[in-house]
Amino acid sequence: MRISKTLFLAILFVFIALEKGHPQQPQSKSYTTQENVAIGGYDVVAYFTQNKSVKGSQKFAAQHDGVDYWFSSSENKSKFQVEPSKYLPQYGGYCAFAMAMKSAKVPSDPETFKLRDGKLYLFFNDYYQGEPFNTIIPWNADERNMLNKATKNWETINHKSKT
């Protein structure tokens, strides 16, 4: 799917406007709720095993690096505990597009995701002025470039927070 430069710039403009209405969490390496639950309580293992977003339950909670993860089953919780790095979302669960374009930690919609090369990417997806706005669209239009930028920006952000 090709995206015109004008459409891309329009999407970018809307994205920047939307960002002002959504608080960033620069102090946190992972996108969590106020209760410290990763990505709104969605089961990170289910993305890989069911290829869909599935709400987890506090009943099947596990902690990793100080963050709570909820799972939809004890089996998924066990899989995560054995190999958490296999299931963790890229860029801490923040929007991959925002990481690429703005080097910013912008909340993502756990139901808007992509699996690529065994990795989970999440994206911002919401309405703006009554119209749907989904950052996975411009991401897909230039994925290789976006992926390179996002990864480089994430490394820079994490390096700054360690110094």
Strand and helix layout:
Layout: H1 5-21, H2 44-50, E1 57-64, E2 67-71, H3 74-82, H4 84-87, H5 96-102, E3 109-116, E4 119-123, E5 125-128, E6 131-134, H6 136-141, H7 143-162
Antiparallel strand pairs: 1-2, 3-4, 5-6
Task: Tell me what the structure shows.
The protein has 163 residues and is of the alpha+beta class. It folds into 2 domains: 1-24 and 89-163, no CATH class; 32-88, no CATH class. The protein is 43% helix and 21% strand. It has helices at residues 5-21, 44-50, 74-82, 84-87, 96-102, 136-141, 143-162, and strands at residues 57-64, 67-71, 109-116, 119-123, 125-128, 131-134. The strands form 3 sheets. A two-stranded antiparallel ribbon has the order 1-2. It has a two-stranded antiparallel ribbon with strand order 3-4. A hairpin with a 2-residue loop joins strand 1 (57-64) and strand 2 (67-71). It is globular, with a radius of gyration of 16 Å. The termini are far apart.
Using brief descriptors, characterize the structure shown:
single chain; alpha+beta; two-stranded antiparallel sheet; 7 helices; 6 strands
What can be said about this structure in brief?
The strands form 3 sheets. A two-stranded antiparallel ribbon has the order 1-2. A two-stranded antiparallel ribbon has the order 3-4. A two-stranded antiparallel ribbon has the order 5-6. The chain has 2 domains: about 100 residues, no CATH class; about 55 residues, no CATH class.
Number of distinct beta strands: 6
Shape: globular
Unreliable stretches: 17-26
Rg, alpha carbons: 16 Å
> N-to-C SSE series?
HHEEHHHEEEEHH
Biggest sheet: strands, sense, closure? 2 strands, antiparallel
